[in-house]
């Protein structure tokens, strides 16, 4: 793979990708990952990727990911790790680390508090052409 091909591969956005955004509403093909039900016909491109991994209530809909209070992770397995399937809920909304859960280190401690409550997880459901939209 050439460097140009690699750059294009790693910078393109595909249906089913997710991101964090400061936007509080759906925008330009991106929907908030809020667990809502979507119609399989209207959102067929996304349904073909995630199916009913996050749930459904009948044969005409499927549920979008629900990332509030969670951090998205990868599906799969590796030596020494638990097997994770697409749609598995893991982790906890809050967790206090114990000394045994922290790796040993010899650096000075610095207390920091990050407030990331302004970030909203979003999932791409369709590709849009912003320039085309602006011209119409």
Describe how the helices and strands are arranged.
Elements: H1 3-11, E1 18-21, E2 30-32, E3 37-39, H2 44-50, E4 61-63, E5 120-124, H3 130-135
Antiparallel strand pairs: 1-5, 2-5, 3-4
Please, what is the average pLDDT? 77
DSSP summary, beta strand count: 5
Beta-strand residue fraction:
5-15%
Counting H and I runs of at least 4 residues, what is the number of helices?
3
Strand order of the largest sheet: 1-5-2
- Element pattern in H and E: HEEEHEEH
Structural class of the secondary structure composition?
A: alpha+beta
Low-confidence sequence ranges: 128-136
Helix content: 10-25%
Give the overall form.
globular
Distance between the termini: 38 Å
Characterize the structure shown.
The chain has 136 residues and is of the alpha+beta class. The protein has a domain of 90 residues. Helices cover 16% and strands 13% of the residues. It contains three helices and five strands; from the N terminus they run H-E-E-E-H-E-E-H. The strands form two sheets. Strands 1-5-2 form a three-stranded antiparallel beta sheet, with no helix packed on it. Strands 3-4 form a two-stranded antiparallel ribbon. The longest helix is centred in the first third of the chain and has 9 residues. The termini are far apart.
